[in-house]
Amino acid sequence: MSNVKVTTLSNGLRIAVDAMPEVESASLGIWVACGTRHESAELNGMAHMLEHMAFKGTKTRSARLIAEEIENVGGSLNAYTGREITAYHASVLKEDVGLGVEMVSDILRNSVFDPDELQRERGVILQEIGQALDTPDDLIFDQFQETALPGQPLGRPVLGTADSVETIGRDDLFAFLARHYTASNMVMSAAGRVEHDQIVELAEKHFGSVPRTPANAHIPEPINYIGGDSREIRTLEQAHLVMGCQGIGYRDPDYYATAIYSTLFGGGMSSRLFQRIREERGLVYGIHCFNAAYADGGLFGIYAGTGEDDLAELVPAVCEEFATVADTLTEQELIRARNQIKAGTLMALESSGARCEQAARHLLIHNRPIPYEEVVARIEAVDQAAVRRVALRLLKSKLTIAALGPIDDLESIEKIAARLAA
Amino acid sequence: MSNVKVTTLSNGLRIAVDAMPEVESASLGIWVACGTRHESAELNGMAHMLEHMAFKGTKTRSARLIAEEIENVGGSLNAYTGREITAYHASVLKEDVGLGVEMVSDILRNSVFDPDELQRERGVILQEIGQALDTPDDLIFDQFQETALPGQPLGRPVLGTADSVETIGRDDLFAFLARHYTASNMVMSAAGRVEHDQIVELAEKHFGSVPRTPANAHIPEPINYIGGDSREIRTLEQAHLVMGCQGIGYRDPDYYATAIYSTLFGGGMSSRLFQRIREERGLVYGIHCFNAAYADGGLFGIYAGTGEDDLAELVPAVCEEFATVADTLTEQELIRARNQIKAGTLMALESSGARCEQAARHLLIHNRPIPYEEVVARIEAVDQAAVRRVALRLLKSKLTIAALGPIDDLESIEKIAARLAA
After folding, report:
1. B117 a catalytic residue
2. Of the candidates A207, A239, A259, which is a domain's last residue?
3. A264-279 pLDDT, tens per residue?
4. How far is CA B66 from the centre of its chain?
5. pLDDT tens-digit profile of A335-364?
6. Which residues in chain B are contacts of A343 at CB distance < 8 A?
7. Which residue numbers of A are catalytic?
C-alpha cells in the first residue's frame, strides 16, 4: 500500500517519496505548478516551448548527450506540459536513480537555450501543431476549451499557435523559467526502488540552491466560464462533437461526486453513454465524458464522433441522457462507479510511474499526499444526493458546443439547449 | 523475476501462469492464434467483428449484463484483434479472478450473435472505420501494409471495409468461431495475484470441453512481400509518409538483431532518425521505425510526418540515414540499444498486464515462455556483424512507399530507391 513520505527543503522545495522495495526500477521527476494558464496571449505556447528547449542542451551537455546519457543505461527521460502543471520525469533502473535526478536537475537548471537550437525547435513545434490540426479527435478538445473559456489563458492551446511560436524568444524563455521554476513552485517526486533519505539527499544536492518563490507570486487569472458555439465544416468521415459546460475543480467539495458522476454517465462500457448511444443505437464507436479539473474550476464535456447521417439521431439521444441522470440514477449504478474508482486507484498503486505522478500532483494541488484509505473514504461518502447535485449543477450551466467535420445539419445551440432544459 | 508455469489440458489448451504475490490484482485472458490473415477477401474484418460480437450477449447474459457484471466489481474486460492474434483479457482484483475467467469463457463459448445486435454492431464498426479514415497517422499504416502485401490476407485492414462489414453474416461468425477458437489454437494466460493451481482448475472447468484442433488445420497463406507505391493527395497540414521494405519475422534468426537495429536506428530519442531528422534538422515532430513481425516474415517501415515544404529535404535525409547504418554503426550505439531493450524488458516485469500478454504471446509464437535471462542472453549475443547484416537485408529489399497528404512534390519511388542504392 502507498506510504508517501514528504520532506520540505529549506528553500521550500517539497519532496514526495513512495518506496516500493519489491520492484527493480524507479520513476522520478519534477512537477512544476506552471503551464499554459500562466502565459500571456502573445506568448501562448511558452510553457510548452520551454519544456521542449529543456532537452536542447545545458552548460555541460549537448541535446544529443542528454538523449544518449539516459538511454545508455536503458532509462528514459520525458516531459509534458499541461494547462497548470509541467512535468519532467525519468524511468531508470535502481542503480541509476542518482543519474536520473542529476539529469532532471541539469535540464531544468542549466539549459542554455542556444539560438540555433531554438530556431530548429520552433520547426519541430510547428510540425507538432500541424499533426494536432490533422487529428480531428485531438483538435476538437482544443476547440472546445477555447470556446468555453474565450480570451483567457486557460482557454488557449498548450502548443500555442504558428504566430506565437515564432514570437517567443530566448529572453522570454529565461524570464519564464526564472519566474516559475522556483523552489516552492516545484515538487520532486520519486516512487519505486528508492529510499526516502537517498532522494532527499539527491534533492538537496541538485535542487537545494534553487531560489524560493515569493508567496502568492503567480496566482493566474481566475477561470471565467463563458461558453459558446464553435463549428468548423471540414470534409471528414465523421462529425466530431464536444458538448459541455462549466465543470468542477479539484478543490470543489463535489469533486469526488463528480468523479462518480463521470464514471457512471460516460466512464466505462457499462456507463449510460456507452450503453445507450453505442450499444443500444450503434451510433458511435467512441463516446465518453470528461471533467477537466483545475484549481479554481473545471470544464465538463461529452465527446462523440459519428457519421454525417447519424448526427440528427445522436444529438437528441445524448441530450436525453444528459438531461435525465439526476432523476433516474440508481443505487446500483452508484455502487458500481464507486467500485470502479476504488479498484482503479488500487491497481494504479502497482505502477511506480502512476504513484510518482500521483504523489506529485497531490502535493501541488492539495499540499499533502492523499492516502489510498482517504480516497476510498471520500468515494464511499458520495451518496445519490451528491451525484444528483452534480448532475443538476452541470445541467444548469450554460452550454458550449464544439463541432468539426460534416456538420451542416447540426442543429443550433439554442435548440440543443432547449432539449436539455426540457 | 518472472517465473511462468505452463500446463496443457487434455484437449490441448495451454495455460501460462505468472504469479506475482506482491500485488493485489490480476490480469488474465485468452489469446487466440487467429486474426485478419485467416480471413478471405470477401469476409475481411471478420476476426475483428467476432471480437466485437463477443461482447453483445451470451445465452445467459445480455450485452449490458456483460458490461455491468465486470464493472460491478471494479474490473474491466477488453479485447483487441491483430493480424495473427486476437485477445480477450480482464483486469480484476484478486478476489474476482474466478469471475474474470468465467466471463471470458462465457463470451467466447456462449455468444449468441443476435441478429439485431449484429446489425447495430455493423454501425459501430462503420463508425470505427470512419474514425480511422479521419486519422492520417493511423490510416497511413494500413495503406503501407496493403501496398507492401497486395492481394493477400496479411495486407488487408483489421477493421475490414464498409462493404465487407455489410457482407459478414451471423453464420459466417459461427463458422469462423468453430474453426479457429479451438483448444490447441488458444492460450490462457494469467499474471499477478493468482496461483498456478487455481488458474488451471478454472481453465479446466471453463475451457476443458473446448474441442481440440486438428493438427495443421489453419496454416494461413504465406506472407508474400511484393512492395509498391501508394499515394493519396489530401488537404492536410502534414504529409504523412511510410517508407519501408520486407522485414524480419518472429522466428527469424535475426529477430533479436532486428530489435537492436530498430532501437538504434529509430527507437528512442538518442536514435539516428530522432537525432538527425528531428533534432539536427527540425523537420518532424514524430519519426520512428518499426518492424511488424509475423510468424513467417515481417514488414519494416519508417514513419515521418512533415509539412509540405519540408518534404523535399526530408526524403533525402531519411534515405541517407537508412542507407548508411551498416557502414557507420558504432559499438557505443550497439551497447546503448542493448541496455534499452534489457531495461525495458525488466521494467515490463513490474506490470501484471505486460507479463500476462508476454507469456501468452510466447506460447503462441514459440510454444514456450521465454525467460527474462534468455532474452538478455540473446540481446547480449547480438554483435555489430549481426546488426550490419540486418541493415543490409532491409536495404536490399524492394522499396514500398505509402504517402498521404499534400504530397504533390514527393519524388518518384524510382528516385527514392536510387538514393538508397547509391
Report:
1. no
2. A207
3. 999 999 999 999 999 9
4. 26
5. 999 999 999 999 999 999 999 999 999 999
6. 25, 73-75, 92-93
7. 51
